[in-house]
């Protein structure tokens, strides 16, 4: 093809419009991917609204990309072949020379290349990506399922597997939305005694369907911390809800040396005081997604254990409607753009 379609935003805070562009050629150690699906993540709003430096307009965002390699750049043919199914997630490549990269900690690269920020993202029929961003999709996963796993999935999965919790430990997942509905499934599949925390008694049945052993209604008379302590205290709380008050409310429910893993991006400070941490050795940690290998591990585990995101697919030309639905909180639970 000589041209492709993309959904772009012309100016900060604007609507998505479909445009036609000339197909680019991949440079050295890059590939061109024919996009089959791209998840719509809340973090996309950070770029659409130019809330971080370096955003350039017109903007094509999207960092939950699944597709097929259709052209190889120089130096890529030792591992990859045309037709290989791949994802590109929040980790869209690293610089390779900053101190974290030199230590092998690529996900905290000082010059991290996030698709839709560092280069055009996946709200399009084609995208150019560096080879270190590619994760191979298992045959068992459809593109629409693989795409959200490249960001939402790996963030929840990696946050849990890098926590101090071990099989049999009590692990709580705060929120059962776009991140949390995956977090509950992963926690149960990893062998944790899984607690889902959300607002309202009506979500209890859904939490149990996801695999939770216990459900805590955060609006009930019993506080979340007291409810967790009644179960023995959580070794890990995976905070997926972007609500600082709700996150803060879990801290006193951690067991001694328990860990609060924050993956939901809220804009207000956490109300935690040092005394809540010191005497019991509790830890509060932010967790930043995962590398391409982490994404590949996430997809492999998901395929093995039958874990899938709950998605609503819409065609690329409805990108604006999908984005607005995600921003309104009405998505159940991941909006995914498709090009087929």
Describe this structure in words.
By secondary structure, the chain is of the alpha/beta class. It contains ten helices and 15 strands. It has helices at 44-48, 99-102, 143-161, 180-189, 204-210, 224-230, 244-248, 275-278, 292-305, 319-328; strands at residues 3-9, 16-22, 30-40, 65-72, 85-88, 126-130, 135-136, 170-174, 193-198, 214-217, 234-239, 254-262, 283-286, 311-315, 334-338. The strands form three sheets. Strands 3, 4, 5, 6, 7, 14 and 15 form a seven-stranded mixed sheet that branches. Strand 11 (234-239), helix 7 (244-248) and strand 12 form a beta-alpha-beta unit. Helix 3 crosses helix 9 (292-305). The two termini are 15 Å apart. The model has no long low-confidence stretch (mean pLDDT 97).
- Report the major sheet: 7 strands, mixed
Mean pLDDT across residues: 97
The number of distinct helices, counting runs of at least 4 residues, comes to 10
Number of strands: 15
Strand content: 25-35%
Sequence stretches where pLDDT stays below 50 over 5 or more residues: none
Could you tell me how far the N terminus lies from the C terminus, measured between alpha carbons in angstroms? 15 Å
- Secondary structure: helix percent: 25-40%
Q: What are the secondary-structure elements, in order, as H or E? A: EEEHEEHEEHEHEHEHEHEHEHEHE
Radius of gyration: 20 Å
Structure class: alpha/beta
Tell me, what's the shape? globular
